[in-house]
Amino acid sequence: DQQVKQNSPSLSVQEGRISILNCDYTNSMFDYFLWYKKYPAEGPTFLISISSIKDKNEDGRFTVFLNKSAKHLSLHIVPSQPGDSAVYFCAATGYQKVTFGTGTKLQVIP
Amino acid sequence: TAGITQAPTSQILAAGRSMTLRCTQDMRHNAMYWYRQDLGLGLRLIHYSNTAGTTGKGEVPDGYSVSRANTDDFPLTLASAVPSQTSVYFCASSEVPAPNTGDLFFGEGSRLTVL
After folding, report:
1. What is the CATH number of the domain that holds A21?
2. Closest residue in chain B to residue A100, using alpha carbons only
3. Average pLDDT of the residues in B88-103
4. How many domains does chain A have?
């Protein structure tokens, strides 16, 4: 039973445009949500997080939105750059565990 | 800065053989984790340890065992490998269990192929 889901396995975006990556979760007890970025042959690295008591968190080109009623979060990257091409995992914390989604492969086309 | 070191980087293993994936961290983090990454399934937690001397089961623990004899090392053992254990394995650590601020650090992964 996948508690954190990323329904789009891949996404292609033109350089300079907005990238929107989506994530849905089923467990209302999750209290923090995170996004990780992974390049090939490397481990995932932390990108941005949001508490369940907030609905938006911004860090430079990256913004995460949380809609608790819909159990949905999204990551916006504006403007997208070729170096953003990677696999993005959303994750949620709860019950002393971090649960990851299935990942979305983003390709930013120059 | 070493952070987390995993070994081996890559391994091909015959089914039925045993294998230990090594993980060492130099950040003195209390918590350590093993994840496996599979296409379409994302990162799934195999086992975790919130502090030295304790371990716990994650989402997919069957066929794997771990030990945490000290703070720095968290080896993952496959007692009798099966082809479904072909995957990329990531070790991770954090100062506190299930950190909220993204202080979850990953190694570079160990690619295991079981034939």
Report:
1. 2.60.40.10
2. B43
3. 83
4. 1
